[in-house]
């Protein structure tokens, strides 16, 4: 099978994707467009529909409605040799040696075994794992086995890498290494699409994100645009606790731990500053903080989804 392989602006596109399991609409009309060369995160709580969406985009399952394009082809499986996929369910043959397992995964994507073996050893060596190349998969630590599987996802040098929850099950050190590896691939021009329920990874890595909850896209754009959905937060403490200047504090002001908290007013901080100075409030501290992606996620996807994510995060931390 040879698919039409152009040089598209978008490495992955999905339009109106719908998937129903029995009576349950797991994915309810998703549009997604991943720019070529981008690191793109699909963010959402467990059960949001991330895996189902990725599987539809990759052609592992067919959508009930909608269509998708992968690397310019509307037949996703025809470009499989240019795609690397790390599924959520990890698994390697336990009795295979690590380097062999990597070469084997490459062979499944059309890479000659000999080349795969050489690349596997080189990759392991470059990442300080040369000693593990001839160890059986069952002898490796969980984190190392996961890294081996990741190398198997990369060994055929795909143009597009799709990683489903790649950080779960990894400790903090290995999570950092994975972030570095994702950046390294992106520098080479590879497109990376990954799903996660851990907001911090998406915030650090992604040029663009899609926030999915309940099978629908709740937000699509840059991390900065998501954060800009919320007004910056101001924290102010004054030496004097009362005075005419208090009338200048915004309506949403709350007092907490001896400081005033409120959203940055539309007109900026200057009018308030003037009132504070004229009223001799005695400014002790003043900070204006831009909300993080976590706060934006809470606002966009709703408190319930954020709580589900927090629960899932602590569960996966326990796993790690
Ligand atoms: N083959 C299937 N049969 C029935 N229900 C399914 C199937 N696959 C997924 N679902 C359901 O569809 C919903 C979305 O699942 P999906 O795996 O896409 O979510 P997710 O966002 O990837 O979450 P998770 O990280 O928990 O996998 C869930 O409620 C799940 O139980």
Automatic annotation (TrEMBL):
Q: Which Gene3D superfamilies match?
A: P-loop containing nucleotide triphosphate hydrolases (3.40.50.300)
Which UniProt keywords are given for this protein, alphabetically ordered?
A: ATP-binding, Nodulation, Nucleotide-binding, Transport
What family does the entry list?
Belongs to the ABC transporter superfamily.
Claim: Membrane is one of the keywords in the record: no
Q: Which residues form the ABC transporter domain?
A: 12-239
What species was this sequence derived from?
Answer: Sphingobium fontiphilum
Q: Which PANTHER family match?
A: ABC TRANSPORTER ATP-BINDING PROTEIN, ABC TRANSPORTER ATP-BINDING PROTEIN NATA
Give the protein name, as stated in the record.
Answer: ABC-2 type transport system ATP-binding protein
Under InterPro entries, the record lists: AAA+_ATPase, ABC_transporter-like_ATP-bd, ABC_transporter_ATP-binding, P-loop_NTPase
Give start-end ranges for the coiled-coil region(s): none
What GO MF annotations does this protein's record show? ATP binding; ATP hydrolysis activity
The organism's superkingdom is given as: Bacteria
